[in-house]
């Protein structure tokens, strides 16, 4: 049997176009071919389970190897294999139509970045790095004949009878001159680590040496020797594929260490698992960070059926949750479309809402289960929660029940609790409740003391995100304003009876006031003479809240 044929497509020169668009991503050829090998292996396993394949499954390890001299890379599997007819159907027609569709879609795209870059180009991505590709395959079916397919990247192919005796498929790539960098152990190991680390079938890439025990020596000490063992590059059942009830905290922490070796332990995590109306699994971690500047975005890895796709999860994960770490695995996220399409995609929207809800539920659960422990973590969690409150209305609605405010006495309150606490005395003449806050407890120390003297409470809102958080909750809370403790408002709140008699007469007060005003010579400040005892602060100089905010913004370049 020998047959030559022409792959029927309209675009003659498909490969130059594929190469052009996926230029920076040539390495994905390996992901695609290994995924196909894994798929073929999963299929034979399923057929065996269903009783439709009665032979021995045997060792089903997929193997990746290369030959520097022959300039080949080979991907071998012991999957279900293909008959010559199936090659014609699946490789010549179907796979090629996928590639054709890709080109049709993107030949006019101006910017290659518009394409997610991770298009499932499948089998034909082999031609990004190979000048010639061979398929040696034997189908699992009774009486199947082995077949060899070869193609040089033009639309011409050749199929002939093969000699293969065992079930499965070898894909042999004859690497082109421009791609010889891939004929390198570390290069290939790196690509496999990146894309194939969690695939569900063992993948072997060469061997590695390992120390094993080798009896005891004369003195009774244990002896070790080095042996060569298969280098299996993947973990076949990563934790997100398991049930939470089968996992211990340690498993989650170990997995985190595996993903981010240099990081501190995370604060907590959320195991995601849903099959309807879309399929999604994953584990999201809240990282421990010292401050906002340490926060890193894009640490979430996106997988599709355990194949790594990207760590650009923008538009899939809500913006504020980009600060989380971990993995999301979903076959329902379209990977082959441009960003703008992704934003409009119904599944992506649902996934977005689902994740937001899950995170809010988890926080709510932690808060309800053990408030003291939650308060202790607030310093670390607060940043995420505030960011979420500011950026997602859906999250605000849930978040207001577990968002905490901390005062200068180290006490924590929810928004409602705090309103109840202060509204009796911290109310201005327009009946607005005033939350006082300090942005720097040391510098504003005397103002805090003076407010406390009047039984007013002062919050600490001192991180960079707080200025945005303050503005946001003002728009959300009814009849409530937030004022920095050194704002002029403090004096204008309805006060309880003065506890000290004023040591100055009215006239004297007026004179002192004028004296200060003259010395300051700036209309944006106002001077108040208080009826306090002489050892305290008889004079406070304040600035209107809005004026100060403007100044702060000018200093920080607009405040973002
Ligand atoms: P996809 O994997 O999305 O179906 P591909 O272009 O990667 O698209 O592959 C096309 C088809 O070729 C596969 O669906 C499968 O039927 C067949 N195929 C590819 N590689 C193998 C393999 N190693 N063993 C068996 N069949 C394969
Ligand atoms: Mg494929």
UniProtKB/TrEMBL annotation:
It comes from Algoriphagus marincola. InterPro entries: HATPase_C_sf, Heat_shock_protein_90_CS, HSP90_C, Hsp90_fam, Hsp90_N, Ribosomal_Su5_D2-typ_SF. Pfam families: HATPase_c_3 (PF13589), HSP90 (PF00183). This is Molecular chaperone HtpG. PANTHER family: HEAT SHOCK PROTEIN 90 FAMILY MEMBER. Belongs to the heat shock protein 90 family. Keywords: ATP-binding, Chaperone, Nucleotide-binding. It comes from the Bacteria.
């Amino acid at each position: 049997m020998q047959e030559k044929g022409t792959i029927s497509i309209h675009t003659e020169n498909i490969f130059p176009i594929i190469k052009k668009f996926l230029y920076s991503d040539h390495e994905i050829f390996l992901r695609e071919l290994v995924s196909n090998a894994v798929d073929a292996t999963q299929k034979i396993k399923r057929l065996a389970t269903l009783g439709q394949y009665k032979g021995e499954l045997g060792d089903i390890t997929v193997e990746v190897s290369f030959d520097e001299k022959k300039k080949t890379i080979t991907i071998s599997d012991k999957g279900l294999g293909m008959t010559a007819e199936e090659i014609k159907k699946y490789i010549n027609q179907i796979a090629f139509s996928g590639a054709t569709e890709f080109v049709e879609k993107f030949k006019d795209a101006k910017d290659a970045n518009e394409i997610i870059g991770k298009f499932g180009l499948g089998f034909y991505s082999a031609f990004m790095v190979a000048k010639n590709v061979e398929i040696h395959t034997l189908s699992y079916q009774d009486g199947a004949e082995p077949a060899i397919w070869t193609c040089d990247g033009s639309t011409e192919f050749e199929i002939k009878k093969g000699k293969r005796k065992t079930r499965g498929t070898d894909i042999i790539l004859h690497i082109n001159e421009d791609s010889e960098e891939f004929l390198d152990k570390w290069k290939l190991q790196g690509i496999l680590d990146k894309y194939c680390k969690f695939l569900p079938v063992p993948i072997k890439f060469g061997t590695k040496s390992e120390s094993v025990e080798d009896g005891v020596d004369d003195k009774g000490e244990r002896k070790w020797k080095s042996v060569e063992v298969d280098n299996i590059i993947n973990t076949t059942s990563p934790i997100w594929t398991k049930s939470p009830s089968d996992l211990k905290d340690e498993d989650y922490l170990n997995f985190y260490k595996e993903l981010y070796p240099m990081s501190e332990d995370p604060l907590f995590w959320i195991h995601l698992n849903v099959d309807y109306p879309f399929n999604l699994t994953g584990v999201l971690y809240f990282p421990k960070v010292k401050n906002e500047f340490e926060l890193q975005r894009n640490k979430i890895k996106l997988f599709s059926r355990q194949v790594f796709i990207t760590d650009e999860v923008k538009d899939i994960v809500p913006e504020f949750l980009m600060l989380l770490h971990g993995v999301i695995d979903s076959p329902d996220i379209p990977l082959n479309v441009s960003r703008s399409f992704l934003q409009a995609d119904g599944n992506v929207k649902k996934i977005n809402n689902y994740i937001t809800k899950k995170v809010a539920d988890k926080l709510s659960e932690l808060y309800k289960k053990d408030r003291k422990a939650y308060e202790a973590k607030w310093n670390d969690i607060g940043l995420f929660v505030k960011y979420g409150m500011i950026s997602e209305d859906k999250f605000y609605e849930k978040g207001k029940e577990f968002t905490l405010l901390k005062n200068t006495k180290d006490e924590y309150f929810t928004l409602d609790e705090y309103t109840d606490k202060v509204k009796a005395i911290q109310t201005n003449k327009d009946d607005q409740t005033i939350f006082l806050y300090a942005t720097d407890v040391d510098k504003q120390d005397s103002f805090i003391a003076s407010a406390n003297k009047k039984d007013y409470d002062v919050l600490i809102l001192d991180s960079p995100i707080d200025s945005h958080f303050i503005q946001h909750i003002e728009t959300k809370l009814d009849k409530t304003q937030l004022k920095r403790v050194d704002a002029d408002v403090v004096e204008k709140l309805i006060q309880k009876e003065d506890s000290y008699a004023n040591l100055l007469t009215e006239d004297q007060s007026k004179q002192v006031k004028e004296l200060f005003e003259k010395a300051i010579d700036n209309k944006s400040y106002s001077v108040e003479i208080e009826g306090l005892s002489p050892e305290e602060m008889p004079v406070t100089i304040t600035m209107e809240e809005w004026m100060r905010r403007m100044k702060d913004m000018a200093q920080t370049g607009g405040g973002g």
